[in-house]
Amino acid sequence: MPRYLIEREIPGCGAMSEDELHGAATGSCKVINEIGPDIAWVHSYVTEDKIYCVYDAKSQDEIKTHAEKSGFPANSIQEIKTVIDPSWSQ
Asked: 37, 47, 50, 87: which has the fewest Cβ within 10 Å?
């Protein structure tokens, strides 16, 4: 299944409390469960005004459906082609 990087512009998200982040995660997972097995949330990075999410999904359409149903924006959706890290320098 392809892997995607989703950029979500959410002003002030870096100041969200643990309870607020927990609520967001719970809501996101609820929608993922409703959509079905063609989408899975891997993890997210929260910055000051954006959240960068990594998802596995059959297509970008599943990610767009998730964004619409969950209320979380998907300002950019990019398929991840390759992951590199320092071990590539060996």
From this structure: 87
Q: Quote the DSSP letter at residue 88.
A: G
Instruction: Tell me if 74 sits within 8 A of 63, measured CB to CB.
Output: yes
For the chain, domains (ranges, CATH) are 3-89 (3.30.70.3090)
Tokens 């320098």 belong to: 89
Predicted confidence (pLDDT) per residue in 42-64, tens digit: 999 999 999 999 999 999 999 99
Residue 6: pLDDT band (50, 70, 90) is very high
Determine the residue type at 46.
Answer: V
